[in-house]
């Protein structure tokens, strides 16, 4: 009887094996992708960009998530607001460019005009009985976490965002996102399900073989290793890394920079993790020579050796904050087997290209790394389509965070699916 | 003998008034930092002169910026009761060509061309027994001139001055407002802040001006003559509050704080607005290859429509931006309602539904 009343998705959820990859339909089924859009991307805080994406009053950014298009605007009081990008007249999309600047928000179809508060301020030919007050733009919940913009499409957004924000603000605020500018954005379409993009991000098992650039600044040991699988040299490296975590961490904390690990990846609705990770060699930045790529340090920093503060959120983002620049990543599904990875690079707003920084040097490591990761995700997707695919085991030493991502995902689907 | 007294020439008897028709050059005497992004620029005539003006009036300056002459009007923040100098107080606007130029380049000794004073926004023009001054941000300047005048004359006054600022660190003339409050029994200055500043928790009124806040601060506001100056959205909000309260708008006066963005200014007589009646300009449209005459007191869109042209437009109130056009040459006077950004105006765009010609024009339409 039970099998008859359960939907296939519920069965898949019920028989998910912890510590193992998900079953193939989670990576290939258009129906499950639609459920992901409805329940995961429709009910959680989704990272979409940074305050410097809309630095001045009238600046607008458009973010599309599934069928929903959202406007993010800077208003005249310098606040940031989000609205559905849908005219209240006949539903036409209001803004078509990814970024633009407007006086008011005007629908190109019949010139219904909304101010930056979303209020309808002009609509011709609608007669005396028409009440513009009932036809304002529909707001979308938006929160800025020290300058990182998260939206929630649900009317009832997860309340534990505040808990995350309270913990994370002291970590992120010193990097002073408000006084940064976005110097480059890349929109990479990976040929894989969004969960494969996320899973790939949550481990560094693949790093040494695939990321020649990233593994210059980054220690793969930061994400764990099996003591049985490393030789003496590697073990020494790992011990050196552990010592650096200890010594540098204490020094950063003493300097007022929170650094220690917090991991709430699968025990909160708004799951997240953070840690300030040591950087190898010169220890300054995620660059090919591990030195700062921008001479203008962020915020009030005078010390360039601040490692890389990493911040991961469920379901769709990760971020690296260095002393000189910031890299942020947003993951948005396009369909079951294609995913948008949107990367933004930020430096101090007063840094001048060619004088204080060389663009290629700032973005080099992550442009190369993203490209390599895109290939790996494509391989995983191709394999998931095969009849031979079956869930395989995660490494208990290097893939714990992948497992936590899947735990969170399955847990959230289970909680939100109609009974 | 010895050193000559530098003050004496300025206090000489029978000092002539400054007259822009005779000498329109002012010399910067001093630059004062009022807040992190607001500075006062203090000017004198080239030879000692006295400045006569009504508190609340403005001067029109010719700025030479990047090889171009840019006209801007700034209300005077100093008081005519201290006539030897005249000052303006300017907030740095991101991307604002003139405010940034002033902040970055105006320095003691530098000369600038100015005409005026002009304007009807003054307690002298609308005398009343009780005043309510409402200001937002750098819109404080004309009201400061009025307040300083009343203070300096030490006559009995009844003035409530409510200033809205982003944070306590952004309250312009904060110490001086406090001082005037201590000196004058009938003068009350209250600030409203939206947020704390990094160095100070704000213990006063928080948020924005609202009917509730106003009713607490000045319960008798309906009996006062009201003068308002600030950014366009601020003044729109004030009009909304007073409308809600049923205030008699005959006793309401407002001034756009920056004549570069003439917005919703109702009770302002500006230099550019006083065009001679009957004057008309030639307006050429490049794309439609039409040339029309546009009277100086008519909106360009109206003139074009009357001439049979069908140009894109919708709200005709400066709101929607549908009629946004590039002004290829010539200058216009524009009173928009939010349909265009200052950055666009700086790029030479204008809303022709709410723009009047100030000379012959070529418009890309």
Automatic annotation (TrEMBL), chain A:
UniProtKB keywords: 2Fe-2S, Dioxygenase, Iron, Iron-sulfur, Metal-binding, Oxidoreductase
Domain Rieske: 47-151
InterPro entries associated with the record: Rieske_2Fe-2S, Rieske_2Fe-2S_sf, Ring_hydroxy_dOase_asu_C_dom, Rng_hydr_dOase-A
Protein's UniProt name: Aromatic ring-hydroxylating dioxygenase subunit alpha
GO molecular function annotations of the record: 2 iron, 2 sulfur cluster binding; dioxygenase activity; iron ion binding
Cofactor (UniProt): Fe cation
Keyword Iron: yes
Keyword Lipid biosynthesis listed: no
UniProtKB/TrEMBL annotation, chain B:
Keyword field: 2Fe-2S, FAD, Flavoprotein, Iron, Iron-sulfur, Metal-binding, Oxidoreductase
Domain FAD-binding FR-type: 21-124
2Fe-2S ferredoxin-type domain segment(s): 281-365
Gene3D superfamilies for the chain: 3.10.20.30, Nucleotide-binding domain of ferredoxin-NADP reductase (FNR) module, Translation factors
Cofactor(s) listed in the protein's UniProt record: FAD
Transmembrane segments: none
Keyword flag Flavoprotein: yes
CDD domains recorded: fer2 (cd00207), FNR_iron_sulfur_binding_1 (cd06215)
InterPro entries in the record: 2Fe-2S_ferredoxin-like_sf, 2Fe-2S_ferredoxin-type, 2Fe2S_fd_BS, Beta-grasp_dom_sf, Cbr1-like_FAD-bd_dom, FAD-bd_FR_type, FNR_nucleotide-bd, MRET
Sample GO molecular function, one term: oxidoreductase activity
Top-rank taxon, per record: Bacteria
Family listed: In the N-terminal section; belongs to the FAD-binding oxidoreductase type 6 family.
Protein name in UniProt: Hybrid-cluster NAD(P)-dependent oxidoreductase
Organism: Oleomonas cavernae
């Amino acid at each position: 009887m039970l099998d008859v009343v359960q939907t296939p998705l519920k069965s898949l959820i019920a028989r998910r094996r912890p510590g193992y990859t998900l079953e193939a339909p989670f990576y290939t089924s258009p129906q499950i992708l639609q459920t992901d859009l409805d329940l995961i991307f429709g009910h959680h805080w989704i990272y979409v960009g940074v305050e410097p994406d809309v630095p001045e009053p009238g600046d607008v950014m458009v973010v599309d998530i599934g069928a929903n298009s959202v406007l993010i605007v800077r208003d005249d009081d310098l606040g940031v607001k989000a609205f559905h990008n849908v005219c209240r007249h006949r539903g036409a999309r209001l803004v078509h460019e990814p970024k633009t600047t407007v006086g008011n928000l005007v629908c190109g179809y019949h010139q219904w005009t909304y101010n930056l508060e979303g209020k309808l301020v002009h609509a011709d030919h609608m007669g005396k009985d028409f009440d513009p007050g009932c036809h304002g733009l529909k707001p979308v919940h938006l929160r800025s976490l020290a300058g990182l913009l998260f939206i929630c499409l649900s009317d009832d957004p997860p309340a534990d965002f505040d808990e995350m924000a309270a913990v994370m603000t002291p970590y992120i605020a010193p990097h002073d996102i408000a006084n940064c500018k976005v110097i480059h954005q890349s929109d990479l379409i990976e040929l894989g399900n969004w969960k494969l993009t996320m899973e790939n991000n949550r481990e560094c098992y693949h790093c040494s073989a695939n990321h020649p650039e990233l593994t210059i600044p980054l220690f793969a040991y930061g994400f764990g290793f099996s003591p049985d699988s490393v030789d003496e040299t590697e073990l020494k490296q790992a011990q050196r890394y552990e010592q650096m975590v200890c010594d540098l961490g204490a020094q950063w904390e003493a300097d007022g920079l929170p650094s220690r690990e917090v991991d709430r990846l699968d025990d909160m609705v708004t799951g997240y993790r953070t840690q300030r990770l040591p950087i190898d060699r010169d220890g300054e930045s995620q660059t090919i020579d591990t030195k700062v790529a921008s001479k203008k340090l962020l915020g009030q920093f005078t010390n360039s050796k601040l490692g890389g503060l990493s911040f991961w959120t469920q379901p769709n983002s990760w971020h690296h904050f260095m002393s000189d620049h910031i890299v942020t990543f947003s993951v948005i599904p396009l369909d079951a087997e294609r995913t948008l990875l949107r990367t933004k690079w930020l430096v101090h707003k007063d840094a001048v290209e060619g004088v204080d920084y060389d663009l290629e040097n700032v973005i080099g490591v992550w442009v190369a790394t993203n490209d390599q990761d895109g290939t790996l995700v494509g391989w995983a997707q191709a394999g998931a389509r095969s009849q031979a695919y079956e869930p395989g085991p995660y490494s208990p030493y290097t893939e714990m965070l992948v497992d936590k991502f899947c735990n969170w995902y399955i847990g959230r689907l289970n909680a939100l699916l109609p009974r | 003998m010895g050193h000559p007294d530098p003050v004496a020439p300025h206090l000489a008897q029978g000092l002539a008034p400054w007259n822009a028709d005779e000498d329109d050059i002012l010399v910067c005497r001093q630059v004062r930092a009022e807040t992190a992004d607001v500075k006062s620029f203090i000017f004198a005539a080239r030879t000692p002169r006295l400045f006569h003006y009504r508190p609340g009036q403005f001067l029109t300056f010719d700025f030479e910026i990047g090889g171009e002459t840019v006209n801007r009007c700034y209300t005077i923040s100093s008081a005519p009761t201290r006539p030897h100098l005249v000052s303006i107080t300017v907030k740095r606007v991101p991307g604002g060509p003139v405010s940034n130029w002033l902040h970055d380049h105006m320095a003691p000794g530098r000369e600038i061309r100015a005409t005026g004073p002009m304007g009807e926004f003054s307690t002298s023009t609308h005398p009343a027994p009780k005043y309510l001054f409402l200001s937002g941000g750098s819109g404080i300047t004309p009201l400061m001139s009025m307040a300083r005048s009343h203070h300096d004359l030490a006559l009995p006054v009844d003035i409530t001055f409510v200033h809205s600022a982003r944070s306590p660190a952004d309250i312009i003339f904060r110490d001086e407002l406090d001082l005037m409050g201590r000196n004058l029994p009938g003068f009350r200055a209250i600030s409203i802040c939206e947020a704390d500043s990094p160095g100070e928790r704000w213990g006063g009124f928080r948020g924005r001006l609202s009917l509730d806040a106003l009713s607490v601060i000045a319960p008798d506001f309906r009996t006062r003559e009201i003068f308002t100056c600030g950014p366009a959205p601020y003044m729109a909000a004030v009009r909304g509050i007073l409308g809600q309260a049923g205030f008699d708008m005959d006793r309401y006066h407002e001034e756009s704080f920056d004549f570069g963005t003439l917005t919703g200014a109702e009770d302002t007589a500006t230099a550019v607005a006083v065009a001679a009646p009957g004057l008309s300009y030639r307006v050429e449209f490049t794309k439609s290859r039409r040339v029309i005459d546009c009277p100086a007191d008519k909106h360009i869109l109206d003139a074009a429509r009357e001439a049979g042209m069908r140009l894109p437009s919708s709200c005709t109130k400066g709101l929607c931006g549908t009629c946004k056009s590039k002004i290829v040459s010539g200058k216009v006077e524009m009173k928009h309602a939010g349909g265009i950004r200052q950055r666009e105006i700086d790029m030479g765009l204008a809303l022709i539904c709410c723009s009047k010609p100030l000379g012959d024009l070529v418009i890309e339409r």
